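Molecular record:
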Amino acid sequence: MAFFEYQAKDSEGKIITDQIEANDQSSALALLSNKGYLITSINEKKEEAQVLEADLNLFNRRVSAESISTFLIQLSIMIKCGVSLAEALQSLEHGETNPLFKECLEDLRSRVYNGASFSEALSHHLDIFDKFTVAMVRVGETGGVLEQVLIKLAASSKRRIALKGQILGALAYPCILLLVASIVLIVLMGFAVPRFADLFAKAGLELPLATKILISVSNFVSNNWIAVIVGFVLIVILFIYYAVTENGRNTLGEFSLKIPVFKEVTKRYFVVQISESMGLLLQAGVPLRELLVAIENTITLPTPKNTVQKMKEYIDQGSNLKAALENDPIFPPMAQKLIETGETTGTMDSMFNEIATYYDEQLNAAIKATLSVLEPCLIVVMAVLVGFIMIAVFIPLFKMSFIRPK
């Protein structure tokens, strides 16, 4: 595949300057002709220019959640005003300044022009648009409510941005505390303790077990301090890399559901996610079973995924959601009662929105409560480690004070 820069006129006589990806120039001309363009010039993009552009893109390889939210809002407005999807994508592409996102929008426009559905085009860019967005757009296209779904997705995206920022902000202090403690321990073990070890060796003292252990660890760190630092950094990087993969998120998520201090945060997060999605799609007029299938496809964590699957199975059997959620590990009794009321009164969309709003506040409270427990725990761990070092060092020093010089 190669890129071809072209200049053309559309059906309204407007001059368009852009680029297109194709196997060869003939294929590029055919693709452009199918769009109704009158080609005035076309040239293959030089490989050097493509490499340079790729190098420049390395400095801007991320598309922010704010950009995606703005894109969804603008797209919904343009569709609401009667602009076709392909034309809306073309307009947004021309106004985009992020090279990576511009390239994505160009591909979306090209696929839609060639007859692909919007959700199918989005599915080729899961590095930018998550599975939830793709599934919701697919449901919106099927139900003929794409405009409403896009508006709701934009609102949902804003809430998720705010929630993510809050969680990251709340975790900043414990992470900095842990990082500083690790650096201090490495410095102590690598540079301070060895000097005390030399002092004890010259004095010929019989060292206690704690001091022997400390000196052994210190000798290893001081003799291999570069390897220790590199290993520490690699462990942090590998953990972060694993945590952002799907398997890593699932493992850590299921683990958090078993740890009391993290359990409530994880449960409330998924109550908010599922309820917000349910309210969003119900308000857009999507049938209950279709939206459950869409939500099921966006959740990878086994426990909440089983909750949605059970809801879908009960609906297929002609039962209700309240029965499906009895003894559920995710939805608490209060949420179950509100869902039952919504089913009885025919106001499930507003009830799910109320649940999402209420448990969003509860999630914030759970995060603060978790941090109020986590921070003292980290301080206690640091105090124990520092206390161990002090005891291991000061016991021999105390013995040395009783040794009379010969």
Remarks:
- Confidence is low (pLDDT under 50) at residues 47-61.
